[in-house]
Amino acid sequence: MRSQTRNNFAAMIISLAGLLFLLPALPCPAQSPRVAATPPMGWNSWNHFAEKVDDAVIRAQAGAMVSSGMRDAGYVYVNIDDTWEGLRDAQGFIHSNNKFPDMKALADYVHSKGLKIGIYSSPGPKTCAGYEGSFGHESQDAETYAAWGIDYLKYDLCSLHDQMQTAGSPEAAHKVMVDAYVKMRDALRATHRPIVYSFCQYGFDAVWRWGASAGGNLWRTTGDIKDNYDRMAEIGFGQAGLAKFAGPGHWNDPDMLEVGNGGMSAEEYRTHMSLWAILAAPLLAGNDLTKMTPETLALLTNREVIAIDQDPAGKQGDRFSAEGPMEVWVRQLADASKAVGLFNRQDHPLEMQADFRALGFSGAVKVRDIWQDKDLGRMSGPYKVRVPGHSVVLLRVSQ
Ligand code: GLA
Predict the structure, then answer these.
(1) Band of the pLDDT at 16, cuts 50, 70, 90?
(2) Which CATH code fits 318-398?
(3) DSSP character for 113?
């Protein structure tokens, strides 16, 4: 009897060990649960430099990310967007073009600054700027990225769209797209390097519904942002209803930041930062970090705004109410407080109000105005405040 028990026990240990051995091979929802526990923060070359990005630019941005204090505020990824790609060799391995003489050395340099490095490709044969894409070379490219020391991949639909259009039906087109993203997910997993996997397919086919199961750590929900209020607002306020699809390891991505690129006023950039923080959006600066004004740096590095974006509960906020141009957005935070944004989409001031009872609080609440860096004390009634045009009053409210 005793030996029977021992045998059962031994059999149990053996099957447990077998299970543990198999575990890494079992499917898991995102590319890697080890990355993007909070929305990725960093910088990307596209919004400011577009095709004028090279090795020197990346080194300079990495340097500025550290010297400006951005790294210490939480910005980590230095992401090279399109136009780094060179030709493939006889074996099919991709090489960088002459703007990037040694990708491995560049990655080592970025890592030596305590930062991480990202790269860009397309599931199609060509990228959006017409460079070499990963189509048919997914495993080789993932291996190459891992060998270089890459930590983040933005995978941009681009020319795969042509193949989708000839697929015969919307369902077949959808399958072409999803299969292509899954293929690179598997190729990245096979490298065993933790690499953030960022989908860029402009929100097609409600990507928030299938992005996580296809391996995305984040997925663009819209077409490209531009450095003007109308486009930024169209994208940002257009995120209403998507909150439930985001969470640790898998985020909605309303595109990169334009803060500091010059096309919006300080109040408009304040709206941009506040809304992205409530949306638990990736914060990827898109300006020239070597030439920031103190005002731009202050907008990008406000610790309390970043704390909302990076809140450990990872619950994306959503629109609470809209009354013409007056929108109230709310995000539940881990410590039971709430971030409340009173947004005025009109171009001149409006009086707005935060009704704390309607927002789910009872009795008196403690209110802090984040951009004013001011505790407003305890309030038992609604808070009325004048909100400048195209701007926001961002509050942190606790019971
Ligand atoms: C698409 C993407 C942009 C950028 C460019 C590069 O437009 O949406 O973010 O990556 O391609 O060509």
Answers:
(1) very low
(2) 2.60.40.1180
(3) T
